[in-house]
Amino acid sequence: MTTVAAYAAPAAKAPLERTTIERRPVGEFDVLIDIKFTGICHSDIHQAREGWGEAIFPMVPGHEIAGVVCEVGPGVTRYAVGDRVGVGCMVDSCQECDNCRAGLEQYCDQRPVWTYNAVGKDGEPTYGGYAQQIVVDEKFVVRVPDGLALDVAAPLLCAGITTYSPLKHWDIGPGKKVAVVGFGGLGHMGVKIAHALGAEVTVLSQSLRKKDDGLKLGADHYYATSDPATFEQLKGGFDLILNTVSAPLDFPAFLSLLRTGGAMVNVGLPEEPVQVPLAALFGNRRNLTSSNIGGIAETQEMLDFCAEHGLGAEIELIGAAEINEAYERVVASDVRYRFVIDIATI
Ligand code: NAP
Ligand code: ZN
């Protein structure tokens, strides 16, 4: 076992504080990673505050992990000491079900082992990336390509793959019109990736406060959803709406913006249940669907795509002591556009 420093929430809604945790010994197929940077995802906050239901405490959040391999088990073939690597939301899965075999480990029949707030196959709780090191089976480790700095790569491990996967699934490319709802951590990556895929991209944000950034990062258009005229003007205009909002929306209003057969993909996961009248779908055979992160092979594909197109996250680098303040700013939609913890400060 290795003892490492970490930041943990001792109980639901309690502020995070410095502590130490034990990492398991490096097993045959394990990689030990010196974590350099970890992004703060809104999912960290939902879970640390038990907004999604009962959670496991103490909780070390963090599933946007970028670092350097510092030790490998004897059976490891894909990575060597010194490699730049990433770990996202999962650290294990059954590896046997149809979904795992199809590279859809995130939909594993047994449920994947999440990077934190879960119990591993060894019966021990998992702890995430707000920590100096992590031990992960090499199958759940991806390579950060040369040309992507580790700090701006870290958020790609969740925000990047969560937006890339549905855009690919729904065949987004030239000739397609995509709306990204919410211009935060996921939203800004959704804009960059949809633009790089060749789509015409519109941001639907609560206000025009971040319009200049949106246009600079790849949006063709930027509208405020607080203005009812937006919904009149954009009616029936989109092939795909990627909803990254962490709170419930007026779903019928957004669905009215879809073309016939268009899809609204929800990646934002509000804490409250949402009710949508089916009549909001019937008019134009609309799809209301969802997407959860992405598989391991697809995460590697996304990182390679981002490196090829020069896409990293826009980040605010913070020290570990600023995590609680950063949480408040994320909740207030005051982030441009991902907080990343410099793990050297833990
Ligand atoms: P974030 O950085 O806080 O971005 C969310 C954005 O939604 C905000 O920046 C804001 O954008 C908008 N927003 C917030 N509150 C709103 C409200 N009450 N009404 C309308 N718009 C509002 O969060 P994130 O890290 O991108 O995560 C977004 C959501 O996705 C969270 O629920 C998170 O748990 C979930 N998530 C899901 C997956 C998955 O695999 N499906 C993966 C990661 C995260 P504007 O200021 O532009 O309006
Ligand atoms: Zn996340």
Strand content: 25-35%
Please work out how many helical segments DSSP would assign. 11
Low-confidence stretches: none
Mean pLDDT: 98
What is the CATH class name of the largest domain? Alpha Beta
From the 3D structure, determine the CATH topology of the largest domain: Quinone Oxidoreductase, Chain A, domain 1
Q: Which of globular, elongated, flat, extended, rod-shaped describes the shape?
A: globular
Explain what the structure shows.
By secondary structure, the protein is of the alpha/beta class. Helix content is 23%, strand content 26%. The chain is built from eleven helices and 17 strands. The strands form four sheets. Strands 3, 4, 5, 8, 9, 16 and 17 form a seven-stranded mixed β-sheet that branches. Helix 8 (251-255) links the parallel strand 13 and strand 14. It starts with a strand and ends with a strand. The model has no long low-confidence stretch (mean pLDDT 98). The chain binds NADP nicotinamide-adenine-dinucleotide phosphate (NAP) and zinc ion.
